[in-house]
């Protein structure tokens, strides 16, 4: 089983090749390429099980190279490696199985290797919103344990959007889905309960069993004639109810 590493920087290419050789004992060879053009040629020669590819390269970028590989019939597993995270959506459009951020963290790479091992054993492994969130939320090399949600991977129609959690005004649970209200509305399957655990509780408040709001987005809190509190968020027309069990959150306001 061969693995291909594609990066135009020799030191980074060597570093990843060494890490993969040490951490993934099941593979036979770790082949390297310094450009997209070289990678296209090697892919046809060695038929790699997985390709770890830098996105920003002179000439053919990693994304352009991946597209050409798919057009030529490559059906193996793509892992993109980059110092930038703004290309996440494009990466997953090329059916990438993972997305690693530089500088590479050994624990993070191990998570990726485990995912690839599952594929080699022909085990179905579905990428849902929650697991995708964990994959993309590792720009600081933080382990999954005790980490906090940084990116929301949400659907709008048939398109996947990667949203900065700090652009979210609120989360509203509705039936089997949760609506993410940011500049527009999106859908995720993650429950309000799970979000409450994953978000920083000093920045996101659960004001109702079905609603979480970002505190900095609160414009005002008003009380109606019955004494019920309603939160008004910037950019959100409809006021959101506060359950009686959560009115204590606003005692200092």
Automatic annotation (TrEMBL):
SUPFAM superfamilies according to UniProt: CheY-like (SSF52172)
Family annotation (Pfam families): LytTR, Response_reg
GO molecular function: DNA binding; phosphorelay response regulator activity
Residues with 4-aspartylphosphate modification: 54
Superkingdom of the source species: Bacteria
Domain HTH LytTR-type: residue ranges: 152-253
Record key words, sorted: Phosphoprotein, Two-component regulatory system
Domain spans labelled Response regulatory: 2-117
UniProt protein name: LytTR family two component transcriptional regulator
């Amino acid at each position: 089983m061969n693995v291909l590493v594609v990066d135009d920087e020799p030191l980074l290419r060597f570093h990843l090749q060494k890490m993969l050789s040490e951490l993934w004992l099941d593979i036979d060879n770790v082949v390297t390429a310094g450009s997209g053009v070289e990678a296209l040629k090697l892919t046809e020669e060695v038929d790699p099980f997985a390709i770890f590819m830098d996105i920003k390269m002179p000439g053919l970028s990693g994304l352009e190279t991946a597209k050409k590989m798919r057009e030529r019939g490559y059906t193996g597993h793509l892992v993109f490696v980059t110092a930038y995270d703004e290309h996440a959506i494009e990466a997953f459009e090329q059916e990438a199985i993972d997305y690693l951020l530089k500088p590479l963290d050994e624990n993070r790479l191990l998570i990726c290797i485990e995912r690839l091992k599952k594929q080699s054993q022909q085990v179905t492994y579905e990428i849902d919103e929650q697991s995708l969130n964990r994959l993309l939320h590792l720009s600081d090399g933080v382990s999954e344990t005790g980490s906090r949600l940084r990116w929301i991977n949400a659907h709008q129609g048939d398109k996947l959007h990667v949203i900065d959690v700090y652009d979210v005004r609120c989360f509203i649970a509705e039936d089997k889905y949760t609506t993410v209200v940011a500049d527009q509305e999106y859908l995720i399957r993650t429950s309000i309960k799970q979000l409450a655990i994953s978000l920083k509780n000093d920045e996101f408040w659960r004001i109702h069993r079905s609603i979480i709001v970002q505190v900095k987005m609160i414009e005002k809190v008003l009380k109606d004639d019955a004494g019920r509190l309603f939160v008004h968020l910037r950019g959100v027309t409809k006021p959101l109810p506060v359950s009686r069990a959560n009115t204590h959150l606003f005692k200092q306001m």
